[in-house]
Amino acid sequence: MINARFFEPKKVNMAQKNNITKPANPRPRLQHNYVLSPITALAFYHGAPGPNDVGENVLVLAGEDTWLKVYHVGSSRLVGQLKVFSSQPIHGIHVSSSPSPSPLSSSLEGETLASRCCSETQTTRLLIWGGQSVAVVPHASLQRLIEGGGSGSGGSPPAQPSEFRAADWIYDGILFPSLSSSSLSDETACCRDGLLVTAHNEVVPIQASADGRSLTFGPLTSPSRPILYSANLCQLSADTVLVAGGTVFGEIIIWKYHMDATSRRGSSSSQWEVLFVFTGHEGSIFGVSISPEIELAPGTKVRLLASCSDDRTIRIWDITDRPPSQLAVTRGCESTDADTTSYSEAARETGFGGGVGGENNSEVKVENRNDSASRCLAVAMGHASRIWHVKFSGRTDYYSQQERLSPVEVHSFGEDCSRQKWELSLDLKRWQGKSSDAVPSNGSLESNVATTTSSGSRLETIGTLEHCGTSSCHSGKNMWSAAVSTRQDSSLIIATGGADGKITISGDQVQSAVVCSDAGQETSNGNREDLGQEYGNFDISLSVDDVDPNPTSPEVHVKKSAKEGFQRYAFLSKKSVLATTTSGRLFLGAVGNSLTWQAVALSEPIVADLKSYNVVKRLGRGSAIIGSGSGKLYLYRETQGIRELCKLPYKIYDIMCLQESVYGQQQSNLWTIIITVLGLDHAIMLTLGESIEESVMDQRQLSIHPGFIVTAAGYCGGNLILGSRIGALAIYKITPDSFSPGVSRRDCKTKDAVTCIVPLPGSSTSFLTGCRDGRYRIYTVGTTTSDGGATTDEPQLHLQHEISPPLGMIEGAWFSQPANKSDIELILYGFRGNNFVVWSETARQELATVECGGAHRPFDYMSPPSSPGQIRLVFTKTTHMRFFSQSRPALRALKEGGHGREMRAASASSDRKYLATAAEDTTIRIWQYRDNPREPVARGFKCLAILEKHSAGIQYLKWHGASYLISSAGSEELFIWRITRLESDYEALAVLGCRGGEEEIMLLSMILSNSTLKSYLYSKEMGFRLLASGRYTGACLTQIRHLRVVEGEGIHVLTAATDGNLAVWVAAAVDGSGGDGSCAEYALVSVARLHQSSVKCLDLALQDGSIGGQSGPYSRWLVATGGDDNALGFLDLGWDAGGDGGEGYKVLGKYRVKDAHAAALTGLCVVKGRAGGIEVATVSNDQRVKLWRAERREGDRVGKVAVSLLDNQYSSVADAGDLEVIDEGRLMIAGVGMEVWDVSEAQKGDGGR
Predict the structure, then answer these.
(1) Cβ atoms of 304 and 314 closer than 8 Å
(2) How does pLDDT run across 30-84, given as a tens digit for each residue?
(3) 366 φ, ψ to 5°?
(4) What is the reported pTM?
(5) Beta-strand (E) ranges in 168-312?
(6) GO CC annotation: what is one (predicted)?
(7) How far apart are CA 815 and CA 823, in angstroms?
């Protein structure tokens, strides 16, 4: 990975400034507009509360390619942005100090550095690095950035910091708070601003000026020069820094760097002291993290190291540097040498050699050589793939004041885009070496984990890493950055950044359930909380005996042989819940200062009626409806108790509550319910009021088709929609006299029930259905057109949208009601495996995941309409009732992202409203780009739809107009999608594989992996009909474009291949409407070689004007190509009507720009075409975007084409896959990220370079 040395290991004062910031082009044609790129660095900044802040002002500093962006955690708002480097992504951010220091700040042994600086003026600076680039952002620039500089709405943006270049890659860095010069020697004070650690285990001090415009590198120090993959720095004292490095060969080196060398020996080795060399991992070390000092017991403090590796394991090491006498006590081993400063001049240069735990590593401190192997405290394996980062929570109170052990929290972040939480528990008796009784007779400990060293010997750790939860934070692969900090209230806050460009925020949440039987509840963290707060965090498990341990109702008798359990639940409000039991009893739970329960007073006949079977449904406003096996219907009101409404002839099967009236207006004091009764051929509609007297049974008969078992109901305009147990829908037109049955349809491929029918907000013609097949669908209600063209009043159902979110079974759906209609979210809930999941389809984010044992269990769930992240859930698990509540999602998106894998194709609709992208993650996303010239931070892509049907990486996308999208993937897949805009307040697109809609005929020409090209005629009525086919021999085809498609002339296409050739093909005219199966053959009429190897991208422009257009006697194209040979090619192609068919094609000129890029061209598009010339944009794997002009000489019909370079800019998108014009004068690059560029008009005097 690193193939260059930093510099020779001698003291060199790198006084040269190495400022590489280049002056901007005075008139660049390409102007950067927006970028969505992987998040490569994260850090927290705890600032002073602003005027609009409630509590602490927490900001996230994110490195997004070359940009530093600041986000406000509370509002998820982008505060400001600053370009730091010219062409180097940011890899790390260090905050020197903060007005509200985090426990994760660099700690000191003994007196803290913060206490020493408390009387001095503290200013926060940022140290930013990436690759070999370094920059320091001064306090003034940071404050201006936080106040909105660079956002377009705040003050003037801060100036771009100066960029300095080191001679090796940087893995970590720190800045020291300002100290008096008297605290250090003169030699140390000259370079006391901070330290960097490089990829070769070298520490370099730096000295920065106050404004960050000057940076001096000091002399390097290194005990050995292995190749590192990770490193971490921790300041121990004013002149000592602890260094941890993880090597490519699976070793971990722990050493001290002493800044004040004059206080130690005069030898060159006096600046470093190797403490340990750990072995045990079986792969490269991708992450190391040094903990703050942790108090294990009163007077006992330790420092730990966490490491993660290619072997998918996490290891915890004790790196406390103890005196030899203490080592003998804590480890029970004898010190071999009392000289704590004995070193060897030999340095470790490679990862090979050495024994277990560094026992043969002569550079390790003498008293630690026999101790390193036993320093591994715990080992755990997690994640489905490699682990990139591991971090401690920063809490230091393992031994709390209440004498309760508080496990050390560790968080790991992996390639599988998951964050996993671990808790480290230690055997303190064995740690302190007080007695051997801590080890049972069999020689093992309950908390011990046996591990094997590299020499094959077994050792037993004295702790365990217990897995406490997994959060899926991103899509695709790779979580490139993470940050962990604590708020002022000691709650944990975690930020993650992924390859998808998304930033997530998570923190402390209740993880486990507790069993309670007293009036006051104890939460899972051991503290008694006020459960009455608005949607507080708790998870409680109760049995019937816990709810009512001493039944007092004399009329209620439960047989001792039958265990009483909970049967049904209904939330009456956010602070009350009704539960029924198998013995017919009702309990009312109230959430206040504690969760209290009381039995509802019932008469003996009602208890007997509800025993063994009952149906309970929530109505709202403290009310619920209850049905029994005998057909009786009851209304329960919190303030009035239970009353019988009516008696139906047979057993009540289900009750469905309709939220709207017949005419779509919300009735605040009325409920409409539909009741299905076993044995009846019709359903019953009942309108309920505030009192029994207001309840009215609808006399209109709602007939049900035999076999149609109703499971869901809803209104849409003036129609009633019913869903069945087998996935069918039926529509009824509502008239004053009847429910007139209309058509029915079934789109579910399995016999799974429709679980909900929800009208779209702001629409009287569209509604959504959820189904247990895991899909939700959107329908519109339309009218019927007869063969004669006349329209009838009979309503019809038209499927508009069908998609499968990451839920196994959808049980319900609802739309949030925010203050701003543009922020409406679609919320789905259901079961996935053993979990109950609440999912935001709009944000593509899990709002809650609760382990419940799986589907097919009674439950009820509720959230406030304006805050879907607040959740209350009650359900049955193993005869117990679980009551779960959360005040906020365990994970939320601070910034939305995109594809989690490399994008390979992009296409804009003909009206430029929508942009489609496709990636290796097999998904297609449809976006809308929103620009705000006055406020750059408001720019961005809004994802309107995600299409998930392909089984392989998608290679190509193409819009047909603005309503159809064609996609092709690697496994010979080709899909046609119909895209429509939903007419509602919910902002989304309806997407459907072409199975309906208006008649549309399209011509599709395609190339296949077997070097054949085919042209099809497609419509929904006749499907695909082959018109023409051909085969190219000798190479694979890579590109195809239509040249001429004219009735009577046939189809003319242009192809490109891996041999660098462009070819023109002509197929005779074929009437595709026939059914005889006739197919024309493509004839190869012209071949021109432009590239030495594969043609990877192609675009063309038809040259009109004086030389003729498509229908004229002469047509001419200027074709631009990009190749695998790094070249840009132009083909001047003409067609003369006077020629004989294909013989009319002539190559008028071939032009090739050698080394147009430093790597293969992967994207190309014509930005502007005009008579006589074109402007072309290109992008390459060298991360450069260039603008070219190809122009013919005026009046020269067959003259040469002159090519000039107009602009050359750095692109933030790595591994670019496509380049597309998304609007007039605007480009979008797709690859590992998305980037938007504005192409300005040429000014007088602009020329090529």
Answers:
(1) no
(2) 999 999 999 999 999 988 776 665 567 889 999 999 999 999 998 888 999 999 9
(3) -55, -45
(4) 0.84
(5) 170-175, 194-198, 203-208, 215-217, 228-237, 240-247, 252-258, 272-278, 285-290, 294-297, 300-302, 304-309
(6) cytoplasm
(7) 10
Q: How does pLDDT run across 865-885, given as a tens digit for each residue?
A: 888 989 999 999 988 999 999
Tokens of 1188: 């070219």
Distance of alpha carbon 655 from alpha carbon 353, whole angstroms: 74
The identity of residue 67, as a single letter, is: W
Retrieve residue 134's tokens: 């370094």
**pLDDT at position 421:** 92
Contact 1046, 1144 (CB under 8 A): no
As given in the structure block, the two tokens for residue 243 are 């260094």
Burial of 646: CB neighbours in 10 Å, binned 0-12, 13-18, 19+: middle
* Residue 1077 pLDDT: 63
**For tokens 């792969």, what's the residue?**
283
pLDDT tens digit sequence for 332-384: 333 333 333 333 333 345 555 544 444 444 566 655 555 666 788 999 998 88
Kindly indicate the confidence band of residue 102, based on its pLDDT and cuts at 50, 70 and 90: very low
Helix/strand/coil (H, E, C) string of 969-1006?
ECCCEEEEEEEEECCCCCCCEEEEECCCCCCCCEEEEE
When pLDDT is averaged across residues 1063-1074 and rounded to a whole number, the result is 76
Q: Please provide the average confidence, as pLDDT, over all residues in the chain.
A: 80
List the one residue out of 724, 678, 732 whose CA is nearest residue 703: 732
Instruction: Write the pLDDT tens digit of every residue in 801-814.
Output: 888 888 889 999 99
Predicted pLDDT of residue 1084? 93
Record the tokens describing residue 609, joined without a space: 């009626």
Distances (CA, A) of 309 to 417, 559, 661, 1033: 16, 59, 61, 48
- Three-state secondary structure of 828-868: EEEEECCEEEEEECCCCEEEEEEECCCCCCCEEEECCCCCC
Distance (Å) of CA 1076 to CA 655, 1015, 1021, 1045, 1073: 56, 16, 17, 22, 9
Q: Coil, helix or strand for 412?
A: strand
Phi, psi for 261 (deg, rounded to 5)? -70, -20
Cβ–Cβ < 8 Å for 1101, 1124: no
For residue 542, which of 886, 874, 882, 861 has the smallest C-alpha distance? 882
How confident is residue 987, by pLDDT bands cut at 50, 70 and 90? Answer: confident
Largest Cα span, the chain: 108
DSSP-derived secondary structure letter, 437? G
| Number of other CB atoms surrounding residue 320 within 10 Å | 18
Assign residue 184 a region: left if phi > 0, alpha if psi is -120 to 50, beta otherwise? beta
Name 703's Cβ contacts closer than 8 Å, sequence gap at least 6. Answer: 681, 682, 739, 741
- Compute how many other C-beta atoms are within 10 angstroms of the C-beta atom of residue 1020: 15
- Rounded CA separation 830/851 (Å): 12
Phi, psi of 576 (to 5 degrees): -150, 145
Taking CA atoms, 1017 is separated from 1026, 1042, 1049, in Å, by: 6, 14, 16
Q: Please, are residues 6 and 220 in contact by the beta-carbon 8 Å criterion?
A: yes
